[in-house]
């Protein structure tokens, strides 16, 4: 096997060498090596893709749709995404000029942030936050600025946002993820109106990551784009809503002048999205609402079971508004180093959870549990934790 010539590694950009790998994936890979471990680590639905999605993908293959799509995506997919946003969130986007297909919401984040960020900028985000944002800020020579929310029940308040804007005049954008990963916090229309009022006085762009928007347990999800369309980039997709993580289909919606810029980065990175995957996503978005609702009900059932059970064994946990995570405060009588405690539970209780520190400031002393797992797995994981902590 070839080994790189000594010194040639310096040809790699220093900012790339200095970023870390995905911490969530790194922990998951570490824990995979433990025999008998129950992994509640990754945010991946335990359901399989719906049959209507599989049939649409097979038909696409049989119809020889193996050629390039356009950079923006098939018109059928773009229309399906526009209809999904209109039907669920009363958002109005022209499918031909204001929506872009992407390789999952991850590429949507990458292409959007890489389009708007440059050296010297600052990127705001409530913390705890999904770690990808910080790494992409670093690659784009942008400073990540976390706004701590652990003292406001993980909710970004208007006063916190206003203070952050005043203290960071070079802020170019703010990332809002809701329902949030890892806390499950969602925002009401009243809360969003207050945030929108602050943002409207600035030229900040809102990168609104709404990939968990269909998994809301406390009311109807509201997109901040319905209040601030002229300053918002909406990110969404079918990975979580339709159990299609491996098909890698997401989309970006924004004013046409912004989409026309984002598409440049997108096409240089991936050329075009897979036709069979888009065909499956069209079926999911157009015909899959009832299936999504069935999954939502199952997740809510798991959530409602787990919360009181974890409180019984000493974990403080706020009921998440959406997504499929519990953000667990480590009991006071246990090791407060969340990485050390996660490893302790993995090796001794054989339950794999993600350390809260993976999600930035404010995550210290917490663990994230994904309940996108079968009832049997969750019952057994809880039994193991109860026995170990007892």
Automatic annotation (TrEMBL):
Single GO biological process annotation from the record = amino acid metabolic process
EC number assigned by the record: 2.6.1.-
Show the CDD domains listed in the entry. AAT_like
Task: Kindly list the GO molecular function terms attached to this UniProt entry.
Answer: pyridoxal phosphate binding; transaminase activity
Q: Which cofactor does it need?
A: pyridoxal 5'-phosphate
Superkingdom of this protein's organism: Bacteria
Q: Which keywords, in A-to-Z order, does the entry hold?
A: Aminotransferase, Pyridoxal phosphate, Transferase
Domain (Aminotransferase class I/classII large): give its ranges. 37-385
* Family classification: Belongs to the class-I pyridoxal-phosphate-dependent aminotransferase family.
Protein name, entry field: Aminotransferase
| Native organism | Oenococcus oeni (strain ATCC BAA-331 / PSU-1)
């Amino acid at each position: 096997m070839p080994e790189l010539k000594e010194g040639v590694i310096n040809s790699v950009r220093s900012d790339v060498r200095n970023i870390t790998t995905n911490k969530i994936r790194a922990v998951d890979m570490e824990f995979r090596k433990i025999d008998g471990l129950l992994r509640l680590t990754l945010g991946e639905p335990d359901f399989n893709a719906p049959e209507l999605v599989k049939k649409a993908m097979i038909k696409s293959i049989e119809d020889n749709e193996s050629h390039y799509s356009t950079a923006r995506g098939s018109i059928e997919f773009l229309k399906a995404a526009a209809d999904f946003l209109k039907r669920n969130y009363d958002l109005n986007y022209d499918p031909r000029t204001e929506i872009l297909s992407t390789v999952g919401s991850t590429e949507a984040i990458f292409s959007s942030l890489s389009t708007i960020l440059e050296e010297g900028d600052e990127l705001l985000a409530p913390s705890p936050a999904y770690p990808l944002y910080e790494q992409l800020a670093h690659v784009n020579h942008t400073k990540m600025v976390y706004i701590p929310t652990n003292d406001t029940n993980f909710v970004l308040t208007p006063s916190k946002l206003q203070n952050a804007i005043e203290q960071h005049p070079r802020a170019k954008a703010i990332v809002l993820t809701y329902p949030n990963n890892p806390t499950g916090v969602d925002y009401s229309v009243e809360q969003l109106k207050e945030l929108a009022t602050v943002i409207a006085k600035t030229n900040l762009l809102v990168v609104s990551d709404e990939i968990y928007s269909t998994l809301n347990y406390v009311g109807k999800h509201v997109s901040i784009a319905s209040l601030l369309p002229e300053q918002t980039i909406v990110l969404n997709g079918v990975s979580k809503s339709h159990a299609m993580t491996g098909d890698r289909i997401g989309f970006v919606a924004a004013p046409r002048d912004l989409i026309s810029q984002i598409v440049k980065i997108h096409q240089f990175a991936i050329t075009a999205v897979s036709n069979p995957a888009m065909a499956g996503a069209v079926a999911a978005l157009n015909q899959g609402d009832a299936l999504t609702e069935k999954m939502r009900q199952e997740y809510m059932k798991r959530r409602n079971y787990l919360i009181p059970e974890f409180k019984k064994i000493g974990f403080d946990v706020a009921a998440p508004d959406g997504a499929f995570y519990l953000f667990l405060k480590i009991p006071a009588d246990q090791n407060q180093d969340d990485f050390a405690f996660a490893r302790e539970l993995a090796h001794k209780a054989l339950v794999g959870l993600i350390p809260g520190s993976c999600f930035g400031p404010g995550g210290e002393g917490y663990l994230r549990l994904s309940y996108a797992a079968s009832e049997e797995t969750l019952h057994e994981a809880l039994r193991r934790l109860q026995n170990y902590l007892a």
